[in-house]
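Chain and conformation:
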Amino acid sequence: MEWLNNYNNAIKYIEEHLTEEMDLSKLGKIAGCSGFHFQRMFSYMAEIPLSEYIRKRKMTLAAMDLQKGEKVIDVALKYGYDSPTAFNRAFQNVHGFAPSLAKSEGIKLKAFLPISFKITIKGEAEMNYKIEKKEAFRIVGVSKNYILNVEDNFKEIPKFWQESAAKIPEIISLMNKPPYGLMGVCTCMDGKSFDYYIAVSSDREIPEGMQAYTVPEGTWAVFECIGPMPHALQHMQRRIVTEWLPTSGYEYADAPDIEVYSEGDNQSEDYKTEIWVPIKEKK
């Protein structure tokens, strides 16, 4: 499948550029999506954040270079570490000891080999979804900027919801346009960061302390998610990326990811959420 070849070509690009600053936009282009969505999909599919995978591959090769007799400072610079202290910390986090000990007799080094993507059809459970085209609409609410790291984002975004709990009634009171419901909107930025909004669709005046954003016209695959938050939502997002998207005939479009929350107890086993995945037909 073409998308599978694209993703494996992206892995090849990573391997060929481990001694350079990684071009995330280039990675996304190779994979057929934005740098933003490539990082998200990589983390779901490989079950490791892209940044951590790259760091472990660098430290694997760095250990080999040190065992060949290269100097620590030279190896540090080779893999993009201007500070020996930063290189020492990264090396120890992977191997468990300082790089100066890499040549010691009997020392045990860790090797993290290049990954490759393959298709595995799981058929875990049915997935209910619909394809919808939407005109541009404006949202109003509170927002926060995040560095893109899927594992950290899974922890930090629920905290943002807790911090914003007192403002949610005011946000909901602004809602006067479809789609109706309290939304979590993840906007695409530069592949390194994104803005996350807790908001509603509204054309009303922006209250002090809130922000507005216009969701562009586009097409979304809208999935039904049932279960307590945030675990049910995160589990469904992983399934969409690893099970549905690879075989759907669609690929990620460069547009926001959206979650629409219903009223009720979000810890209930029957709680319903919608996940909107921005899509376009594969060429």
Observations:
- The first strand starts at residue 129 and ends at 134.
- The chain has nine helices and nine strands.
